[in-house]
TrEMBL record, chains A, B, C, D:
Keyword Acetylation: no
MF terms (GO), sorted A to Z: lyase activity; transaminase activity
Descriptive protein name: Aminotransferase class I/II-fold pyridoxal phosphate-dependent enzyme
Chain ranges of the Aromatic amino acid beta-eliminating lyase/threonine aldolase domain: 5-240
Species, as recorded: Sodaliphilus pleomorphus
Length: 343, 343, 343, 343
């Protein structure tokens, strides 16, 4: 079975496993206070161009979203997300479990329609100010994914506009980078890590989907966001052997490994896309990253499913469906070729 | 200033105040264990035709919604509401403060479009079952208001269909009756208190907006919903002098007072509507209850605002707006006539 | 049956009921934005000598404690209370329901042993700083009741020392004044309302037990504590007809009514105490306020229970028990005389 | 520097790392639905003699305690723990973050004094039933650690008595087995894994401290406890690459590896203890497990601290302190000998 159903099906990059092997019987202090975490933090700050940022290593994406959002919001604060945003639909209410409301707005191609968002904010503040804001969940942060759930990317100009909107309405800007590497290495993407660090108040660099066994690195550039160690422990999210995360990110941020292996996923995705377009399949959306969405006849889909695993997304009408193939840092040319040979 | 901006601007029906006066210096046990609460519970059960229902008296509507929903939901359960539902937009995230997600769906005229809801549920279960329900907030209850936020009513047949849908998908059906009396006495409404008790798992009979100083009577007909006294206290919602609520509901449910005074609000609303239609104003929606919505030119609106208070709702285009006038159990013919004379 | 089992068994002072009667059919804006609340806030600020304090009116004591504490604490913050503190044992976990830990310490006579508390704080900070404070709930506030659960009082000097300790350890000082009037009017008590406002960051003036139908007035003197209207609504605690609370506190803070009626409770308690001591009963604790605790033989207790209601507190050994009699603003000399005649 | 300050300073048993290496580039389904988790569950059920138990793999101990307790409690339920219990003092209020109160009681040698506990329960129910249980946090579960925080063990007879108490008072019995292996292999311990599974409603088998990189295996034997996958996700605790936990526990429960490596820690601890006793040090408590507590002069302590790391616990008076040395599955004879040579 060829497996393309997600980008977190393998373990980790071999260089990480080697280092874990090397230090396996060394004794380390716990809870992220070890030298590996220290070194990884320093390298990440350097890569982001933000020497004073706080960096925390957490185990998974939902946990990270939950904690960052809990650190940003209070009282009747809420966070704006797309209706299709990961925190709104795929995290089992983890944000609400911390007492906060996700405020869904409509988007396009997995991204905010910034003009529409601006109108929505304007109307929301007019209404709530008139009635009395105490009756409303008031937005205090804006959540976006980059790359998005549909593999698309924000441009530098778009992120700047979102930053301006956030400044205007007193919102924190939070970028979920579960697949950040695949966005940074996409052709045509113009957002760099320092750009993201400059425009966002907080974001995370995904490890689970980009080369690590597990782990996400949260970068807090706005010191008003107190993502404290106490809060992390309070939500059961502090890893005892924190150096396991430190070693992984230290490896990924040594010699551009994070970007190099991200590049592979993008390259393989582009090969897959070109191959499929040659065979006459139509892309459902123009994704320059590791997730590729195609329209496929239901017959073909069922036939393919005998030999390859992929994600069913949604009906496309007329006996067709949208399906998703995800590549990863570990995807090989052979795997993509084998998939293409089935199509 | 003539005031029609809401239906909870007066104190309480004089009969209630008389009884509070009579017993003011009597000594009563606290926390709702007094004979007045006992008597009121019994009268409410009788009026609902549900001798075994549990009845709790709470102070306000948001508190009541929060507690009922907290009692119904657990883990990653959510509650479905209209996008315009009170719990979704006007309660400052009180449901989320208890850790639960409100799941908004689109409606029409303040009501569920039941066919659309059925499709939504079907699609939701198909998707989530395929992916793994643990990643989703799963609906466990359905919230509706009757009368709705737009003054409209569900029919008996509609409530039966919602009940069937709830049975099919394992949902509790919860009816927010903040203005229930005004629905029960509306012309053309065919839902009775026993109907509501039969089709819903839990609902509340509003007092704050219908004759009481404060107070809502929650009626739990499904014994699986454990709205315990401990939970009420746990959320800071147990009134020390619980008899204050008992006396009020006991008075309202003696000799049909609740229905009689509700009738007045509806009658005055109908007089207002006929008067306005005679003057050429167009109803924005066909509401048979105490809230009346009209389209009015912005000029007229500003002029009227000098002498009367009412609610601005939304722009209606072309220099017009939608405005709301609310009558109550205490509204007099003189007040309505005075308002009409300004129009 | 003579009833002395608690101090919240009657309705409200007749002057309050008169005013509620007078304005019953007036129309008021909701949610505490009415002129009665405004006037009451102003009178309370004046009585406290704190023109800039924020004053909120809430319905009950547990709700008030829950909200004030939720406003003070964040992340892994906790609040110190006596083991016997109301929030620790009698509020059904309402503080924990908001995600915060109550940190119990031992006291004496219902009060903090300030030397012991100082030692406890010192030891706690030494241990937690050594291990890493992120593993601990860290105290951020100190809770005390005045009068205490045992009717005792803090002196001005004691409150000053607690203030100093709080300053030293970065704690908010919060005083629960459910029975505050009875403490202010106690003989020998030297703490005034302005003292309390000066030394505490936040406190509340109890209405439910001191003359009101219901209601507590929270006074926030430290502007860093953001007890916002949004938070109040978020926890389901905002009363729709907020003026009901405003009118009550406005009445109580007009012409010293609050203090005058508190005085009555204390006077009757003192009469009761003297009477009982003359009959040979021994006070269990030296309470100068409206709660009086005595040691009584179990035989006498059972006999008395036929004709009078009171609270059983705890065994006293040797066939005796500790019992409590509570007077209130409404207790009459006749009631006390009748009780004494049974003893 | 010789390091004996905790038992989670190394990575994992080499056999685990080998297997992670072998399967590193295989593709697995996520979220614990992989064959490794399946196999590990089956082996654990067999080792526990409970074929129908539910087994969940979680990442860490605080997370596990938080989730198990959240699954057991509702409304105003609480969980009883020792004052020194891990959930009460070392988990940063993670239980309270889920809305539940930890109810501390006094113990002895890190264990419940079962007679005292019985008295406490009896008195608690008498008081609360008299006053009204809705005002109290009511215990619904009992938490214990085995081995305890002081390295001591419960006997089979003691666990049976706790089970009886729990049955009598309607409590779930929950055993925190963060160091369970070290208890199972202790000399003189008579509790087996099947015993624990029989007497407890839920418990966990610690991996983080016993041979794994990270991970705890929760075993739920009482089907009334719904520790659902949805709840795990709702609290941000579902590991994307769940097979990482499955592989580890599958390895540990193949060929008794878990017990064998636990045995090493106990053996080294006993060697350390005998060696120290020969040198005249006195054990602070009689611990048969991997944590050894000794009384040491402060001078010696400071001298030793130059060359060895260990835990300071508490003052012992007279210029002495209590210190702790922890061995682990990875501790070697050479390390213990080197430590002894410094003493």
């Amino acid at each position: 079975m060829l497996r393309f159903e997600s980008d977190y099906m393998e373990g980790c990059h071999p260089a990480i496993l080697r280092r874990l092997q090397e230090i396996n019987l060394d004794k380390n202090v716990g809870y992220g206070l070890d030298p590996y975490c220290e070194s990884a933090r320093s390298k990440i700050c350097q890569a982001c161009g933000t020497p004073d940022a706080q960096v925390h290593f957490l185990v998974g994406g939902t946990q990270t979203n939950m904690l960052v959002i809990d650190a940003m919001l209070r009282y009747n604060d809420g966070i704006i997300a797309l209706e299709t945003g990961h925190i709104n639909v795929h995290e089992s209410g983890a944000v609400e479990a911390c007492g906060h409301k996700v405020m869904p707005v409509k988007g396009r191609d997995g991204k905010y329609d910034i003009d529409a968002l601006e109108q929505w904010l304007k109307a929301f503040y007019e209404e709530t100010t008139a009635v009395g804001i105490e009756h409303y969940v008031m937005p205090r942060a804006l959540y976006l994914s980059h790359p998005t759930e549909l593999g698309t990317l924000y441009t530098r100009r778009e992120l700047m506009r979102l930053r301006e909107l956030c400044d205007q309405y007193g919102l924190y800007l939070y970028l979920d980078g579960a697949r950040l590497g695949y966005g940074l290495m996409a052709q045509g993407g113009d957002l760099t890590l320092p750009d993201i660090a400059r425009y966002c108040d907080v974001f995370y660099i995904g490890g689970t989907k980009v080369g690590a066994l597990m782990g996400e690195a949260v970068v807090v550039t706005n010191p008003n966001i107190e993502l404290t160690r106490g809060l992390i422990k309070h939500r059961g999210a502090m890893l005892a052997k924190g150096w396991l995360l430190g070693v992984q990110f230290d490896t990924l941020f040594t010699g551009d490994l994070y970007l190099k292996i991200s590049r592979n996923a993008v390259d393989q995705a582009m090969r897959l896309r070109r191959g499929m377009e040659l065979k006459g399949y139509k892309a459902y959306i123009d994704s320059p990253t590791n997730q590729q969405f195609f329209v496929m006849s239901n017959n073909k889909m069922e036939e393919l499913a005998q030999k390859a695993a992929f994600d069913y997304i949604t009906p496309a009408g007329d006996g067709h469906s949208v399906v998703r193939f995800a590549t990863s840092w570990a995807t090989t040319s052979e795997q993509v070729d084998a998939l293409l040979s089935l199509l």
